[in-house]
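S1.2 Input.
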Amino acid sequence: MAEAILMPRLSDTMTEGVIAAWHKQVGDSVKKGDLLAEIETDKATMELESYQEGVLLHIGTAAGGKLQVNDLLAILGKAGEDVSALIAQHSGGSAPVAAKTEEAPASIASASPVSSATPATASLDISSLEEVVLMPRLSDTMTEGVIAGWQKQVGDSVKKGDVLADIETDKATMELESYKDGVLLYQGAKAGEKILVNDLLCIIGKPGQNITDIVAASKNIGTAAPIVAPAAPAQTASNPAPVAAAPVAEVVVNEGRIFASPLAKKIASEKGIDLRFVKGTGDNGRITKSDIDSYTPAASTSVAPAATSAAAAPAKAATTPVVSVPAGEVSFVDSPVSQMRKVIARRLSESLFTAPHFYLTMSIDMDAAVAARTKINEVAKSKISFNDMVLKATALSLKQHPKVNSSWLGDTIRTNYHVNIGVAVAVEEGLLVPVVRFADGKSLSQIGAEVKDFAQKAKDKKLQPSDWEGSTFTISNLGMFGIEEFTAIINPPDACILAVGGISQVPVVKNGQVVPGNVMKVTLSCDHRVVDGATGAAFLQTLKGLLEEPLRMLV
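S1.3 Output.
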């Protein structure tokens, strides 16, 4: 049966998208994961992958055309299948008349949820109809989202710009803002539940409106229908307390984004209290000073220090099972895999097993860099880290060796002459890679400020898709954790990734004498389809020269 694909909401402020290019044409076979089109949003041009299989039977507009969010983008089905009825049902997506763009939701609310929707639309008052809000596609690889928490409950008034819910995607937990005024009449899932992209997320309309038909008809919009019965929102309205932590152990009250006053956060930090275990009594479960003052730590909170670490997912995994267990007893906790962890597993598995990796390791004398950093920080407004120096040196080296700054695109190799460096940042749920754009043209101070800003955004879960798109090279630095040397998996479509270890004081030979020296080891992982050994070695030699004589970076 043919299925409609609607224009997804690819950013939190997107209301329309422009088709930059179609990668499939009418009549082409499409598989799950195939690239359908490139869509230009208000923030970036993003790739739209298919989450269905079939034949492309219809496209809503040609390349260069513009579609509103939730307009008809394409139809997939079986070869030769008649899709005229489906096109008519979503005719607002391509009609030049603005009124018809708003009539698509109106047809859903008609007496018959399946057929004869278009004639009924003409007799309905558009302004009195509810608006269906579908699960937006908040990242270029997202196929489903998890409701981390609802900020509005059924019956609450909603204004444009109000945060409706926190959505956990495959890359981050993001706030979903409303683009309509009204009352929240329906929630498509409870906190902690999954919704596929383009499935019903919620309905916003006027108080007292009957939404039974729209809920039933909306099951035809998405690829699946994990929609709770209309009675479920009533239970949510009568029990508005946060339920995101329900599937976790009893002592864990808050999961995902935690709402707390600045004073409460400060006091909790001073007392070493993990806010995940504190029940908030403020609005929407917000933790206040009184909640911290009255909090009594339980036995399980002995793991709180682990949660404050900047290390990746293992820190979080360790917090739940570390409880008082008698010796000799088997004890474990099975935790559901987060959206971010799923995509990390899929993308890195694909990278490791499809890209032929090879590794080049080099030791770098950091004595001059250590001395230069000390002098720079005497006059710098903000402290410059060794990571900032490595990033700057890498950017300059990539300008000299553009083959290392390349991307594998299947049938072509893209050699990038701009330098956008992805910086791996560990968060509790996994790993994010925000991008420092045009890094070769930025000063150490600019790079340092940008990296610090990204790290804070990642910690606060405020990174946007535009922050992590478009890298041409990636750096992963574990030196601050005491790691001397490691290898990293390439972040596709980049051709290389640089793994940076810590600076160690070791005996070195200088001028025929053994003296203490500061040595840092770096390992370049290369995709052999793009980069050869000699090319990677030449890049590392340039990098080594810049870090061993850091004044060259200022020329």
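S1.4 Remarks. Residues 356 and 529 are 7 Å apart (CA to CA).
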